[in-house]
Known about the structure:
The protein is an alpha+beta fold. It is 39% helix and 25% strand. The protein has eight helices and six strands, in the order ααββαααααβββαβ. It has helices spanning 17-29, 33-57, 102-108, 113-124, 129-138, 146-153, 155-165, 221-233, and strands spanning 72-82, 85-94, 173-187, 190-203, 208-216, 241-244. The strands form two sheets. A four-stranded mixed β-sheet has the order 5-4-3-6, covered by helices on one side. A hairpin with a 4-residue loop joins β4 (190-203) and β5 (208-216). α1 (17-29) packs across α2 (33-57) and α5 packs across α6. It is elongated, with a radius of gyration of 29 Å. 12% of the residues are buried.
Amino acid sequence: MKGKAMPQEESVLRLSRDEALEAARLWQECGDAREFACRVLGGVMNALMDSEAQQMCGAGRNERGGGRENSRNGYRTRSLRTAVGDVELEIPKLRHGTYYPEGMLARWSRVDTSVAAIVQEMYVCGVSTRKVERVASKLGISSLSSSEVSSLCSGLDAEVAEFRRRDLSGTPCCYLWLDATYMSCRVGSSVVSQGVVTAIGLGADGRKHFLGCDVVDTESEDSWAAFLGGLRERGQARGLQGRRQGPRARRGLPG
């Protein structure tokens, strides 16, 4: 009979009596567990950065010695968004050269792909950047400004452009559905009505494929011809049958 495997011993942080008393004092100062976690994480990260800066200088802060290679020159503050909330950091500055804990910040930063995806999803659903900012503050991300929301959502432009340029030669379709939806769009300082034209193809296997989209000022023969020409250039075969949806289904649709 085989004996049971012994559970692996987990690494547990051991605190000295003084450290435990300091942690208890900090807990009393904090209003909730989130604030306590932010204060603890900030203290740990600041201590790690201080240690790395000392190694780069070859000596501790205010320590004099022949082996010193550099010296400290104060610090700069930065707010880092993490899984437990915003953490206030004090990043050391050096007299010569720079120190930037890129690996540490990347590891603990909360604004990663998952958070960016949430912000982008709200943006796509029509939520304004200021409302996204308010939602983020309730999630503990208090310093996510409207400009930062716009910056996160700007990544959508590259993804949409890549999607619209993708090769379609591997998606042969025998039938196309073409349609347009008019939406209010901001162009410069004005809001105007523009048409979003779309193409959905039916493959030989009976599956539908979203082939492409474009924004046009008006549904003219030239705009439809340019849109369909782009599909052909990306690999869609010629001679496709097409049906335009809507009350003007047979007006001006290039064959």
